[in-house]
Amino acid sequence: MKLKALFIAATLVLGGILLSGLDAVHPFGVPGDVAMDEYFLDHAVEERSSENVVTSIVFDYRAFDTLGESAVLFTAICSVVMLFRKGRK
Amino acid sequence: MRKPLSLVARTVCDLFAWFLIIFGVYVIIHGDVTPGGGFQGGAIVGSFMALLLVAHGGDRVLEWVKTSVYWIMLFVGLMMFIGFGLRGIPEGTFFYNFLAVPHDVAKTMAHGLIPFSGTIGVMDIAVGIEVAGGLTVIILSMFRGIVLHDFADSRKETGHDG
């Protein structure tokens, strides 16, 4: 029972710390630093001539992220195939 | 799980599965002008195999399909993506868009095969091939796993070697 009270106290303290952190959270709907956004919106079409700015970010400006996503997908496929592999009889 | 659906459902699934492929390829190759792209179009193409498996109950499809084709699609897509990224190194950086043309030149061109938006279209196609093959591999191997568990004693945990 003493341990349970300790857990409840720890939960309350941790929750209080996390909730008090909400003060420092960025306000919703208000952009912070818009330099990158404005650069992409202004220059993506002229530089890369792709009419879809999202695609030009995903496959050109931040293609390294997409490479990581592909690696994650490949790892997931290998894991699934290993998990569902027919075992040795 | 292994029993096929009725004749009507099978016929409709057979008919519409090919339109699903056409729509997925459309989403992939128009990734640089319309919403969507390689991942989304690849997922649409991958759902082709799920539709066939559900409609036919798996037995016919599993003996008809070759999983190695989809592994090859996965590897070819990933290698195309990495290869076009490496090809940009002599021009500048990794993933440099060496095929891009300026926008005023591109506006006068018809929406041709590749050099409209440079490597973005190529990357779209590569990721589309990779995701289509990979999701089909996942669907097929998961279905094989389910079929395997139908025969085994499912109340007892045996492991793969047991």
Describe the structure.
- The complex is a heterodimer of chains A (89) and B (162).
- Chain A is mainly α.
- Helix content of chain A is 71%, strand content 0%.
- In chain A, helix 2 (35-48) crosses helix 3 and helix 3 crosses helix 4 (63-83).
- The longest helix of chain A is centred in the C-terminal third of the chain and has 21 residues, at 63-83.
- In chain A, 17% of the residues are buried.
- The model of chain A has no long low-confidence stretch (mean pLDDT 85).
- Chain B is mainly α and 162 residues long.
- Chain B has six helices and no strands.
- In chain B, helix 4 runs antiparallel to helix 6 (119-151).
- The longest helix of chain B is centred in the last third of the chain and has 33 residues, at 119-151.
- The model of chain B has no long low-confidence stretch (mean pLDDT 82).
- Chain B: The chain crosses the membrane at residues 12-31, 37-57, 69-89, 125-147.
- Chain B: Keywords: Cell membrane, Membrane, Transmembrane, Transmembrane helix.
- Chain B: It is found in: Cell membrane.
Identify the notable features of this structure and list them briefly:
heterodimer, A: 89 residues, mainly alpha, flat, B: 162 residues, 6 helices, 67% helix, 0% strand, elongated
Quick overview of this protein structure:
The complex is a heterodimer of chains A (89) and B (162). With 89 residues, chain A is an all-alpha fold. Chain A is 71% helix and 0% strand.
Q: How are the secondary structure elements laid out?
A:
The complex is a heterodimer of chains A (89) and B (162).
Chain A: H1 2-20, H2 35-48, H3 53-61, H4 63-83
Helix pairs in contact in A: 2-3, 3-4
Chain B: H1 7-29, H2 38-56, H3 59-64, H4 67-87, H5 103-108, H6 119-151
Helix pairs in contact in B: 1-2, 2-6, 4-6
InterPro entries (chain A): MrpA_C/MbhE (IPR046806)
Domain MrpA C-terminal/MbhE (chain A): 34-88
Transmembrane segments (chain A): 66-84
